[in-house]
Amino acid sequence: MKIKISADSTCDLSPELIERYHIGITPLYIIRGEETLRDGIDVRPEELYEYYKTTGKLPQTSGCTPVDFSAAFDRIHEKYPTAKILYLAYSAATTVSYRSAHLAAEGRDYVTMMDTKSVSCAL
């Protein structure tokens, strides 16, 4: 059985590992002033550090929505229809993303979820 790994952008895997293992990444949101950006797509960590250095303001974050995860799971399933998806979640105690993924996984018997209970945060 083929297994495809899915995670959200807080897993902080390198682009090389994501590409090498074809890992599906669902981006969280970064709120920087009036802008809402997708983590790892619209903004990189270096830019957030620079934003703080120049403004003195910390960006905020917002978790992925069920719609975000539904789209991510559907993309993976469309590309690998016989594969099982293993979603490795950022700590459910610190973000709504795990609950959102759980809601998106309902009715998708090919999705299994695991709360890693870990926090990476660009370390």
Description:
It is a single chain. With about 120 residues, this protein is of the alpha/beta class. The strands form two sheets. Strands 2-1-6-7 form a four-stranded parallel β-sheet, with helices on one face. It has a three-stranded antiparallel β-sheet with strand order 4-3-5, with no helix packed on it. Strand 6, helix 4 and strand 7 form a beta-alpha-beta unit. Helix 3 crosses helix 4. It is elongated. The termini are far apart. About 25% of the residues are buried.
Total strand count, please? Answer: 7
The number of helical elements comes to: 4
Biggest sheet descriptor: 4 strands, parallel
Overall pLDDT score: 90
What does the overall shape look like?
elongated
- Proportion of helical residues: 25-40%
In terms of DSSP E residues, the strand content is 25-35%
Order of helices and strands: EHEEEHEHEHE
Low confidence ranges: none
Strand order of the biggest β-sheet: 2-1-6-7
What is the alpha-carbon Rg in Å? 15 Å
Structural class: alpha/beta
Q: Give the N-terminus to C-terminus distance in angstroms.
A: 33 Å
In short:
Helix content is 33%, strand content 25%. The protein is of the alpha/beta class.
Could you list some keywords that capture this structure?
123 residues, alpha/beta, 4 helices, 7 strands, elongated
Structural topology:
Blueprint: E1 3-8, H1 15-21, E2 24-26, E3 29-32, E4 35-38, H2 45-55, E5 60-62, H3 66-79, E6 84-89, H4 97-105, E7 111-115
Parallel strand pairs: 1-2, 1-6, 6-7
Antiparallel strand pairs: 3-4, 3-5
